[in-house]
Amino acid sequence: MPAGLDDVKIEFDTVKMTVHTKIGVDQMERAAMKGGETSKAGYHHGDLREALLVAAEEELAEKGVEGFTLRGCAKRAGVSHAAPAHHFKDADGLLTALAAVGFTRFTTAMTARQSAAPVNSRERLVALGLGYIDFAISEPALFRLMFASGRPDFNDPELQQVAMNSLGQLIQGVSAVRGSAAQGDKAAMLDVAAAWSMVHGIADLALSGRMKFMDEPGLAGDPDATYRNLIERILPRME
Amino acid sequence: MPAGLDDVKIEFDTVKMTVHTKIGVDQMERAAMKGGETSKAGYHHGDLREALLVAAEEELAEKGVEGFTLRGCAKRAGVSHAAPAHHFKDADGLLTALAAVGFTRFTTAMTARQSAAPVNSRERLVALGLGYIDFAISEPALFRLMFASGRPDFNDPELQQVAMNSLGQLIQGVSAVRGSAAQGDKAAMLDVAAAWSMVHGIADLALSGRMKFMDEPGLAGDPDATYRNLIERILPRME
DNA sequence: ACCCAATCTTGACACTGTCAGGATCGTAAT
DNA sequence: ATTACGATCCTGACAGTGTCAAGATTGGGT
Prior knowledge:
Chain A is 62% helix and 0% strand. In chain A, α2 packs antiparallel against α3.
């Protein structure tokens, strides 16, 4: 993400202001263009593709997957409603790219928890699961987009890549607990499926507010402790 | 669901045919009206509310949650685009009612599996989980609507009721395994959360095609056996 | 027989995604 | 340096959507 692009968040109320603010955007772009960016920055807007991605993430976080709007993203980025078509085939194309950045962020959320855990394979696997749940709760709309929307195109090579990376991280975590590579081993893959299902189930139920049956008076405690208790139940059968 | 209403599924290609087919519908209604229905059947269409629900279920199954359309439901039911407003406040209102019928069907899917299982509390709990997964796979769009869409209004009393019934069934299944009522007991509720999370995770991952990493050459077997293996992993800690 | 309220239709509005055509700008070739 | 060109962006349009308002239609209670 190019430096300075965060400053571009401007509220539009009338269409009349478009030209006005677009000048401001260009100024920002010119200022940010000093650090050589990797992507094909340049041209009119600067790097509209990146700007649209951050706009889309805002839009998604505010309106949810159901209320997401391509025109809304364009307005947030300060461009016309048809501009996104030059960078993304579809509205679904933009959502596909957004899901891809979601998966990379997803991976970092898991590694973040992992690297803060004791150097113990079991503890690290539990931490991975807690990172999984962290992400789901802190970015619910993005999580829904990635796992329960059907809008992103998972045939897209980039998305497929980052999504496989997430799964690979999980497989590696299970392999570490088992002491051998899980890939190809039936029992090991069942362990992977078990870990993934449990953690994903916790995340999805918590995210949709369906875990609140645990929030009764003397029942609840630290949510993290609860999740840990649940995750640990899948460890015994692994070795 | 009134008898005979299933015959009302008529395909519309042009709007011109509306009057034509609507007569057919009325005939069906009149024929079906002999058995006294519970709902406020009568008036023009017969029982448009029920007809809209079956139309909505078709629409949802074909187009998915994302492609669901209120006008499409109206066309399927053979009425004008604004007719549904007299029976459901919103498009979300229709989806709320549809989610309610989904939950009752969900419950019956679980009890169906349960009653075909050995009279063993553990076996019955596993069967309940398999019924959960059955439903998710056989009616994916409905399942997504119920668990991962945000469109149904869960403050609606009817929906809240049937949704709680499903949860109650799960709590009862766990209670049977434990030998005592789970309600209010902290450890028991953790067992419930574990069972629910595991089964829900399996269902959601399988439904979205993300379990296909298990479908490698010598790896896979009967999906049901795989799911059973996973579900059984949460049993040991219960007593 | 009449009236009324529930039911349904028609028409309209704002909004959406997408396409076509024209304007604008940076860059490469001349 | 100028010109041509292709990438980028805008304006305008179209079909489709949800929702509201107002008028037609129908059946049951009086």
